Every structure is written in structure tokens, then in C-alpha cells.
Amino acid sequence: MFTFFAKKNFLVDHLEGFIDIHNHILPGIDDGAKNIEESISLTKGFAELGISSFIATPHIMHNYYDNNRETINDSLSILKNELLKEDMKDISLRVAAEHMIDDNFESILESGDIMPIESSYLLVEMSYLQASINFDEAIQKIKKQGYFPILAHPERYLYLHENLIKHSEYKKQGVLYQLNLLSLGIYYGKQVRRMAFKLLEEGLFDFVGSDIHNPSQLNGLKEVQVNSKITEILQPILEKTNLLFNDC
């Protein structure tokens, strides 16, 4: 019988022990946490959801966020020191980067200045306005160097929404797909949510990440509801993410 008092199924109820491989919680380094206070607030907010293991992935984006190993590790040290002051000893924090496939990407790839996840996986993204002209070539170079490319939030590239064949081509090239958990709600809009569901149903996602930048997004994540079908599809992807990127 239908009831107005049926229990809502919230996504965060399924994230206990989740390892977040894509987020922007490092302070003052990109468009994520503005300062150390916001970093701590985000970390505490995640901890309340049962998430205490992070691979922080600040942007490396030419002429916007020209981060490198030094700037990222400096920001990491600041956050780790503050976590100790807050007696948050249970937080596991590692770093990598989210690399924009832009006109400078292949240069830093060849020079070894990239920041992979756990030495083997490289998180990459494209502009939301148009596909990177050098994307296919960059993917081949990533693989040639021995890395596995992970494309961040493929559901958010609107220019691919009417080109599902392109997703199949990327997968055939060996591109791994990472879903943004926020895409399962309406934070990015209904069109992105529909595409997230479509790619999930097609079995194209390999990993998940929060891609949280700020408290507003974290609050948005708490509001995401999922039905039993999506939960069933999502569960093995969560488990795969945790198993592969376990920090033990």
C-alpha cells in the first residue's frame, strides 16, 4: 500500500567506509576549499557520513591552476597538521591531481610532472564547453607511459549527451569512467542526472568519487536519494573503488 511515510533511501546511507578518490578538500589551492577552516569543516562533514579516507585531487589546469607536486604537497602538509591539532587522527589523506587535457598536458606528462592516483591511475578531465582537441592522442600517450586513464565525471559533458557512440569509443580505447556522486541528484541539473543513470545502466562506470569542492556541495550530497535499482548497480562500483584504492 502506498504511504506518504515510506522511508526515503538516501545515497549517503550507503557510503560508510567509502574511499573518496576525487575531491577538492585541500586548502587554498584551486576552486575547492578556500582556506584551512573550510578544509576542516569539509573533512568533519565527511566524517559524519562515515567517510574518513581521501585521495585529494586538486586541479592541474594551465593558466588557471598551475599546481605541481610541490604546491599540492605543501597544501597537504597544512591540512595534515591541522587535522592533528583537531585530534582527527583517524583521517587518511593522500594526494593526486585532476589533470585538464589542455595545451600543456602532454608536456607535463612527458616531463613526469603528473600526479597519478596510487602510481598507476591518472585522473583527467575535459572542458565542459567542448571536447579537448588532443583527447584521443593524450589518452594513447597516457597508456603508453603505463598509466590507466580515468575520465572524471563523463556524465557532465553536455556535448556528449547526444553522442553515446563516443562513450563506447572511449571505453574501447581503455578509458575508465568515474561517476560524480552528486550527479545522482539534481545539483548539476536533471539532464546530467539522466545521463548518469544512463551510463550506470549501460555499465560504463568503473569508479565513483564525490568531487566535492565546498560545503554547499556536501550539503547537496546529503539530499541525494536513490532507488533500489540504482543502489544495486552502484554498490559493486563502490566496492571496486574501495578495493582498488584501499590505503591499508
Apparent shape: globular
Whole-angstrom Rg: 18 Å
Number of strands: 9
Question: Which segments are poorly predicted (pLDDT under 50) over 5 or more consecutive residues?
Answer: 1-6
End-to-end distance, in Å? 46 Å
Largest sheet: 6 strands, parallel
Count of DSSP H/I helices = 8
Mean pLDDT: 95
Relative strand content: 5-15%
Q: In which range does the helix fraction lie?
A: 25-40%
CATH topology annotation: TIM Barrel
State the CATH class. Answer: Alpha Beta
**Count of the separate structural domains:** 1
The CATH homologous superfamily is named Metal-dependent hydrolases
SSE class: alpha/beta
The CATH architecture comes to Alpha-Beta Barrel
Strand arrangement across the biggest beta sheet: 3-5-6-7-8-9
Give the H and E element order.
EHEEHEEHEHEHEHEHH
Describe the structure.
The protein is of the alpha/beta class and 248 residues long. The chain has helices at residues 36-48, 69-85, 105-111, 135-144, 164-172, 190-201, 215-223, 228-244, and strands at 19-20, 53-56, 59-60, 92-95, 98-100, 121-125, 148-152, 176-180, 207-209. Strands 3-5-6-7-8-9 form a six-stranded parallel β-sheet. A three-stranded parallel β-sheet has the order 1-2-4, covered by helices on one side.
